[in-house]
Each structure stands twice: as C-alpha cells, then as structure tokens.
Amino acid sequence: MPKIVDHELRKIRIAEAAWKVIVQSGMEHATVRKIAKESGLSVGSLRYYFPTQAELLLFSMELVSERVKERIHAHLHQPKADPLTAIKDVIGEMLPLDDERRVETEVWFVFSAKALVDLRLRQLNEQVYTEMSNAFKRVIQFLQQVGLVRADLQAEREAKRLHALVDGLALHHLMHPEKLTKQAIIDILQHHLRTLQT
C-alpha cells in the first residue's frame, strides 16, 4: 500500500528545518541543500514543495506570523477574570519567553533584515507590520474600554509606543539574554502597562 503523505505538514516541517538552519548558520548559509539535509529530504524532494529558495523563505516567514496569530487568537477565546492578565498573555506571544518563541523571534528578525533587499519578503514584512500595529491599537482600545487606562490617554501614540517597546525588548533579549532576562522582560512590560493607568 502506498505511503500517504500530508503535503501541508511536509511543507511545515521543511519550513521548521529552514528556521533551524537560519538560527544556527545565518540566512546567508540557509541553502536548499542544507535545509533539505536538515529536513531529511533530497534536494529534489524539497524542490517539489518549494521550486525556489525565495518561495521557501516566504513560506517560512508566513509560518512564523501564522503561529503567533494562532496563539493570540487562542488567548482571546479563553475567558480570563483579569483583563490585564489577558493583555499580558497576548503581548507575551510576541516576545521570546520560551524556546519556541525565541526561535520564531530570531527567524523573524533575520527575515526582516533580508526584507530590506528582497521585495517579496518586504511586502510580507509590511503586511505583518501593519497587522502587528493594528493589534497594538486594539490592545490599547481594549484597555480603554475596560477602564484600565487614564482618560486622557492618546491611543494612537500609546499603541506605537507599546509596539516599539515590545520590538525593543525582543531584540535586546536576543542580543543580550544575560542582561535582559525573561523575567526582566515581564517586569518591564508590567511596569509599562501600569504607567498607562496613572
């Protein structure tokens, strides 16, 4: 009986192998040959799923974005008694607070650098940036709706400030994990959210 292959799952496994190669060796060394070896496939088999390296990188980048969005969606559909805890959980999905999120964050920053010179990646990068920006706007609007921020808060400015803070925390932790620990990230985020209340 012929083996049944789940093609979508295979593509995801290849993308995850690409992440591993990128994190270990850098984007410039993420060759099709290395990714094929990491995923346990021949180069020909990999090219069946991704005819070009650009298509593989684009899919890999989209997968990072989709995983983060899925986890955020899950939090939003789990009722929590404390709205502030719910918001911290949502924002936490965008920060490298465990091994999975650390790999995703590393890959995302590498892709973002590559997007400066690759138009296809830049378009996706812009799309995800807009989605993230809108997510932070919704966070601030939610905090306003439940009365957890001061009345004179400028929502647009605070959404941008929160977005910049989260990006900065993620980057600083990746570059200097011993100086900006995971607990420090959580403490800084909690402190920032408290400043919106007074």
TrEMBL record:
DNA-binding region: 31-50
Keywords noted in UniProt: DNA-binding, Repressor, Transcription, Transcription regulation
Matches recorded under Pfam families: TetR_C_6, TetR_N
SUPFAM superfamilies: Homeodomain-like (SSF46689), Tetracyclin repressor-like, C-terminal domain (SSF48498)
Gene Ontology molecular functions: DNA-binding transcription factor activity; transcription cis-regulatory region binding
Domain HTH tetR-type: residue ranges: 8-68
Name by which UniProt lists this protein: HTH-type transcriptional regulator PksA
